[in-house]
Amino acid sequence: MKSNKLSLKEKSIRICLFALLMLLFSQCTGPEEPMGNNGLDGINFAHSVIYDIDPSDWVGDLNGYNALIDVPEITDDIYYNGAVLVYR
After folding, report:
1. Radius of gyration (Cα) for the chain, nearest Å?
2. CA nearest to 86, candidates 56, 45, 58, 50
3. Does 40 score more than 70 pLDDT?
4. Rounded distance, CA 44 to CA 42, Å?
């Protein structure tokens, strides 16, 4: 008749193997460079720009006022993958 119980030696071997595997996998790390597009992390590239708009540049109608300005800081990458926040 077979016994389902493991001997003390078998238990200790399994525990040691498990502990060794846990130690091995806990030491694994990912790449050292920042992640993101082209190795860049977008969070580190946030900045502010202030524009002064002349009162004559504003156009108003029933929907409110608006003004068009050129913003060369907004690249295609920011336009398609980033965010632009505007405060007045």
Report:
1. 30
2. 50
3. no
4. 5
- Judge contact between 66 and 58, C-beta under 8 A: yes
Q: Which residue has the tokens 């082209």?
A: 38
Q: If DSSP states are collapsed to H, E and C, what string results for the chain?
A: CCCCCCCHHHHHHHHHHHHHHHHHHHCCCCCCCCCCHHHCCHHHHCCCCCCCCCHHHCEEECCEEECCCCCCCCCHHHHHHCCCCCCC
Q: What's the rounded Cα separation, in Å, for the pair 84 and 49?
A: 11
With tokens 């130690």, the residue in question is 23
Cα 45 to chain centroid distance, Å, stands at 12
- State the pTM of this model: 0.39
**Closest C-alpha to 51, from 79, 75, 71, 74:** 71
The string of pLDDT tens digits covering residues 66-80 is 999 888 888 888 888
